[in-house]
Amino acid sequence: MRSYVYRIRFILSVIAVTVLPIIVTGIVLLKAAEQALLEEKEKKLVAITRQMDLALLKDFDTILREQGLQNAPRLQKIEGLNGSLEQLTDQIAQAHPGIGVGYYSKELDAILTYGPSREMAQHVGTPIAPNHPGRQVMSQAKSDVVIGPQVRGDIMNAMSPIERNGEVIGYAWANELMESIDIQLAGMRQGIYSIVGIGCVVAAVASGLMVHRLEIILIEIKEGLRRISLDLSARMKPREGEPGEIVEAINKMASDLQASRSHTETIIHSMESGVIALDHSGCITAWNEAASRITGIGLEQAMGRDYRELFKGEAALLKALSDALTMGKTTKDEEWSPHSPKGPRLYVKIGTFIWRSPMNEVLGAIIVMDDRTEWKRMENSLAQAKRLAVIGELAASIAHEVRNPLTSIKAFAQIIEEDLPADHDSREYTGIIVGEVERLNRFADELLLFSSPNEEKHVSAQIGEVLDQTLLLVERTAVRQGVRLEKVYRDHLAYVLASPKLLKQVFLNILINALQAMQEGGKLLVETSVEDSCVYISITNEGSSIAEEHLLAVFEPFFTTKQSGTGLGLAISQRIVQAYGGYITARNVEMGVQFTVVLPAQKEEGRA
Length: 608
Known about the structure:
- By secondary structure, this protein is an alpha+beta fold.
- The protein has helices spanning 2-55, 60-67, 74-95, 117-120, 133-140, 178-230, 241-270, 289-295, 299-302, 307-310, 315-327, 373-419, 427-451, 463-481, 500-516, 569-579, and strands at 99-105, 110-115, 144-149, 154-164, 167-177, 274-279, 284-287, 334-336, 348-356, 362-371, 459-462, 483-489, 495-498, 522-531, 534-541, 583-588, 593-600.
- It has five domains: 2-183, Beta-Lactamase (2-Layer Sandwich); 234-267; 271-371, PAS domain (Beta-Lactamase, 2-Layer Sandwich), CATH 3.30.450.20; 376-451, Helix Hairpins; 455-606, Heat Shock Protein 90 (2-Layer Sandwich).
- The protein has 16 helices and 17 strands.
- Helix 14 packs parallel to helix 15 (500-516) and helix 15 (500-516) runs antiparallel to helix 16 (569-579).
- The protein is rod-shaped, with a radius of gyration of 60 Å.
């Protein structure tokens, strides 16, 4: 609707620009023509009055003396002068049709002649009004042209004083009815109006055609710009003339912009860091592949959307972007963990920057994201390894200190049991003492294994073979619980340098935990692969997920969420794998929980 209104305004403006000058020109020409016609009439009438003055060869007194009427009454003098001058007046009037002419006597204060006499004879002998302009002409001895109601009616009246012997004896006049002049003016106006009207119509039609052609060109350019805005590879159809130059310039600009954007986008999309750009209103204008990988949001889903809507619920990210856009405050090395209901938890370092133009105008904000999850895991693993080493030393000391008293307690309990009769009630208690001592001994063995997992001999161990032997140990339990064991060995012949016995202990601890989490059955998937000189063994169960805050803590000694257990199984497994230069990770996946053991792969030349 708004574009339609603008279009109408534009058309009217163009028509006004072309038509108004014609109308103004027509009005000016009309006024000039009217003025010219009136001036021409004035000159003509003045010329006739001079002709009448020249035609009066004798003054009024001379004419009366020749007629012997110098002493006659006023009326006889008027009749005598009229009879003498009437023919002359009629001849001049006849020579100028539509013109009224005559003589006036100052002394007699009367109209002497008024031609054509057949029409105006009744005015002969009458004086002019006291305010008649003729009296001023006679008193000032100066010619004048007056338009207005007079003796004949509404006329243009030219009057010239008649001077004889240095004395004004009267005046001669020539006049024309304004009605006649108006008729001529009306004809002239009609002609000018017709010319102006035709000019306006022609100008309006020409303007309309020009506007229509211009509108077509503008629509094509607008549509072309719209296509180019969506696809920089699009080009506008070439045209001739000046529009063609505009189209050529736009196409060249699009080509340059495409080359520039392609270069920039290639750089941005090649970056490992996530890059997001927002305009000053907070809408996403740039988004690279790394940003999609970190946030889990696709490019099509992100572009053009408001960041407040897109990152709803991500308080740290929203605050960083809001500070940059509203206060110009940048952020460096801020940590953010995206809320992801599926997949592992990420640790992201974010930094914000103000986006400025070459003219230093604020265009918006840019945020750079670095996935620090692996770095965070290594940092936590290193800290955990240090803690485990300290705890291991303490555990070794405790185990050595506890084993000797336990041996004595077990020996004395057995001696007491041998001295008691077979049916004695105390034999039950000595059996309990011996059982508990053996349990404490096993716990001490676990502590010793936790403190020194690398004392076992390192040999070349085939991962697939070790896994098969370990799975045999849990196969019956799995069948009893309704758990399906599935194996996917992508590199069955992968080798590592380690103790097969301890590796079996590692895998057994993870499998037992997995089966305990799958009381209602499901699938237990064991996968192996080799990447970047490392062997990856993933064990994925369909049990319940682990709380995010517990994913790293499960490898801490004595940490357990079970009612029974020492909490040393996974801690010992992590210590064993770390002793071989690897590590274990735990993460929640869509189907459940996945534990991944990573070990350095043994090189071919190192195998016996």
